[in-house]
Write a sequence for this structure.
């Protein structure tokens, strides 16, 4: 039996956006959104990375698959039933990928997860120049700043960002995520203001358990 | 290690099984400097791939891998690795960087994507502004006007929606308790459509007021709105009057 994530990745690789969308919607009828993100979309993208490692596909194929996945995510996001004002919380999150970073699919799912929990979200996309991120943060004053990076070359930039953000007067919670957080031990970054988020289920766990305390602690 | 005599206009290496470089071309030196081990120039993410595929068992092979970024670049470079094992010990390796076209397409796609993100972002900001304006409008759609010391008038405006009713609820309940109000006149003259859900919330508000000891009078109801009221079974204690004029005459002249 072909696994669901492998099946989905075939749509991505074939550039079949209609098929991919249809299939994800079909899955959403039976599963919650968090399951789709954690257990199907993410494994599908990892599987595509594996295929490249097996020398079966090229980087160009990967780019195409990313674009299709991006499209599907945008579509799904637009269809989240709008959380009405009465239920919308006043927490704000700002999310972006560090300068030069090109990986952003995970971050986009994170943005969606925050929205689903009734947060206001500013998703600034990957490759955000440092000065720009600081300006936006001063203006928006988010409760949570989410920074994502995949490759180890981003570590120095990440360090500078964390250093800068830790001086913000309203003391937002800073989340560090992306593949970097899964692959490397980022314990040294962690403090009561900085949290390393390993994956989406880790984030959901935070939503379910620790959010209130963490917010109270830091704001 | 020696420079090969043949001049290849491309980066070319001879390596052994442990990826130690035995010989290299002039181009290879120009591009990558002098390195001892081929793996030193390879991006770490590509190491498992190269270790798996560049083995004497696979005699001849083309492999796509990433190299470590050059100084000025922030991202790994994609290239094709052409490998040919002369025997079980040594392999010839030719590195051909990816066509600039691919880079160009990738860059353009990134630009398009960030354009879309920006547009999305601008739209989001406008949407939030609009929502705030609507919310503001909603709050102003049920002003609380004291007519006499015990009677107040609440003229409702526009469509009766859930959002609007929630927006005015608190203010309304609060005001009714602040003063010595015994009676509230809800004026429907300026009301258009009535959403079933919105009407239900309105009914709840009226019930709350009633339980809080305020009598509720509905005035200016139009014939087509009457049936909405009927369907929802409003509390029977609500009284109805045709027009505001009648209501004022009845309650405000002593």
């Amino acid at each position: 039996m072909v696994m669901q994530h492998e099946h989905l990745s075939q749509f991505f690789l074939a550039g079949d956006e209609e098929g991919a969308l249809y299939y994800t919607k079909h899955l959403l009828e039976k599963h919650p959104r968090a399951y789709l993100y954690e257990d199907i979309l993410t494994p599908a993208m990892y599987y595509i990375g594996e295929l490249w490692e097996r020398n079966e596909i090229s980087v160009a194929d990967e780019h195409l698959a990313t674009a299709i996945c991006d499209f599907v995510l945008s579509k799904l996001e637009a269809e989240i039933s709008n959380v009405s004002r009465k239920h919308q919380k006043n927490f704000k999150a700002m999310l972006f990928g560090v300068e030069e970073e090109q990986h952003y699919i995970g971050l986009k799912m994170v943005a969606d997860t925050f929205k689903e929990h009734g947060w206001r979200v500013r998703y600034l996309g990957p490759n955000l120049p440092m000065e720009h991120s600081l300006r936006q943060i001063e203006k928006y004053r988010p409760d949570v700043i989410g920074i994502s990076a995949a490759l180890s070359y981003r570590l120095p930039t990440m360090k500078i960002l964390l250093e800068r953000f830790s001086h913000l007067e309203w003391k937002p919670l800073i989340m560090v995520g992306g593949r970097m957080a899964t692959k490397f031990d980022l314990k040294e970054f962690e403090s009561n203001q900085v949290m390393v988020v390993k994956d989406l289920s880790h984030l959901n766990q935070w939503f379910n358990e620790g959010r209130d305390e963490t917010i109270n602690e830091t704001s | 290690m020696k420079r090969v005599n043949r001049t290849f206009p491309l980066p070319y290496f001879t390596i052994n099984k442990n990826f130690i470089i035995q010989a290299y071309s002039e181009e290879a030196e120009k591009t990558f400097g002098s390195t001892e081990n081929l793996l030193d120039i390879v991006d770490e993410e590509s190491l498992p791939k190269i270790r798996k595929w560049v083995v004497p068992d696979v005699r001849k092979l083309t492999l796509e891998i990433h190299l470590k970024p050059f100084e000025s670049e922030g991202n790994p470079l994609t290239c094709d690795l052409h490998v040919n094992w002369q025997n079980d010990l040594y392999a010839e390796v030719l590195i051909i960087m990816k066509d600039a076209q691919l880079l160009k397409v990738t860059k353009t796609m990134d630009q398009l994507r960030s354009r879309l993100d920006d547009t999305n972002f601008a739209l989001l900001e406008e949407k939030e502004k609009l929502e705030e304006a609507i919310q503001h409008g909603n709050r102003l759609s049920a002003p609380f006007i004291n007519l006499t010391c015990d009677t107040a008038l609440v003229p409702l405006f526009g469509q009766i929606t859930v959002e609007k009713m929630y927006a005015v609820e608190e203010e309304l309940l609060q005001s009714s308790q602040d003063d010595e109000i015994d009676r509230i006149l809800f004026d429907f003259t300026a009301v258009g459509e009535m959403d079933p859900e919105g009407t239900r919330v309105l009914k709840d508000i009226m019930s709350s007021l009633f339980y809080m000891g305020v009598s509720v009078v509905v005035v200016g109801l139009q014939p087509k709105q009457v049936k909405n009221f009927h369907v929802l079974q409003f509390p029977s204690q609500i009284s109805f009057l045709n027009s505001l004029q009648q209501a004022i005459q009845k309650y405000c002249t002593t």
